[in-house]
Design goal:
Blueprint (H helix, E strand, L loop, with lengths): L10 H53 L9 E5 L2 E12 L12 E5 L4 E2 L9 E6 L10 E14 L5 E10 L16 E15 L2 E8 L5 E17 L14 E9 L4 E2 L5 E2 L2 E9 L7
Antiparallel strand pairs: 1-2, 2-4, 2-8, 3-7, 5-6, 5-8, 6-7, 8-9, 9-10, 10-11, 11-14, 12-13
């Protein structure tokens, strides 16, 4: 019966096997590195696009609530805008007594719309003024401050806030009972500034609410990452705050980190978006 023996690999065969394993391993490593690079680049671009879309959503949502003709814009430039940002909308469920030092406004708790409840430390108010329909001084807004807030009830028994206020009547308005009616809307607002600013060597859109310090909102951006242009109702650019009818907002963003581009260079990717917003109560000139 023949005897079978086992033959080991020769040195040449081992070397050939190691070379083949090295070639396959190098190919797999290169694929993994490329996949990781592509994944990193896509992640960076997605984050950048999310940032730019957030800015293109937040700014128009805030700005379309303001009325330039009613002096909501306090200051404006190509890289900054300060305005009265609307935070609440409620309705009076009782006719207030006017002609007194600190009139009390009874505001329904429902329906009520806004980011939060009224805050005496942050918010001012605008109350709709019906006025005298026989004159041109009717249909406007009375500005004021909230000095105290208490729980109360409407005449129909539903829950309400009792806002003790300091109202400033002007422009032909009269502090007389009956000039602010039952059912009148009341809007709460606070001063807000959106601006381009630098922090730790990067550029951001920052928000300043009331007297608080500026906080980053959208970024990082390019050095010219926020550019605003202001137009009146005829479509002409304007530097007069009360004549602004629309605003063009351009955002230019960059990725958080640099990564290898298609041409093998290492750089941050950039992108931009432009959006227009029309303000409410535009006057025709």
């Amino acid at each position: 019966m023949p005897h079978l023996t086992r033959r080991g690999f020769t040195l040449v065969e081992l070397l050939i096997g190691l070379v083949l394993i090295g070639i396959v391993s190098a190919g797999i490593y290169r694929v993994l590195v490329n996949n990781q690079r592509i994944f990193d680049a896509q992640t960076q671009r997605i984050e950048m696009l999310q940032n730019i879309r957030a800015g293109a959503s937040i700014l128009p949502a805030e700005l379309r609530e303001i009325s330039a003709s009613e002096n909501d814009i306090r200051a404006m430039s190509a890289t900054s805008i300060s305005f009265r940002a609307m935070r609440q909308l409620g309705f009076l469920c009782a006719q207030p007594v006017l002609g007194v030092a600190n009139p009390v406004l009874t505001v329904r708790r429902s329906p009520f719309y806004g980011l939060r409840a009224f805050d005496t430390t942050r918010d001012s108010i605008l109350v709709y003024y019906e006025g005298d329909q026989q004159t041109r001084a009717d249909d406007g807004w009375v500005i004021g401050r909230i000095t105290a807030i208490a729980n109360g009830v409407c005449p129909d028994g539903r829950a309400a806030w009792l806002l003790t206020t300091s109202l400033l009547f002007g422009g032909g308005q009269v502090s007389q009972t009956g000039r602010i009616m039952f059912g009148s809307p009341i809007r709460g607002f606070e001063p807000v500034t959106y601006s381009l600013y630098a922090s730790s060597g990067r550029n951001y859109i920052g928000i300043t609410e009331g007297g608080n310090a500026i906080q980053p909102l959208v970024g990082p951006l390019l050095a010219n990452g926020l550019e605003m242009a202001f137009f009146d109702s005829t479509g002409a650019t304007t530097a007069t705050r009360s004549r602004v009818a629309s605003i063009r907002i351009t955002l230019r963003a960059e990725t958080q980190r640099a990564f290898r581009q298609r041409d093998a260079s290492i750089a941050r990717a950039v992108d931009s978006v432009t959006t227009w917003v029309s303000l409410r109560n535009n006057q025709r000139y």
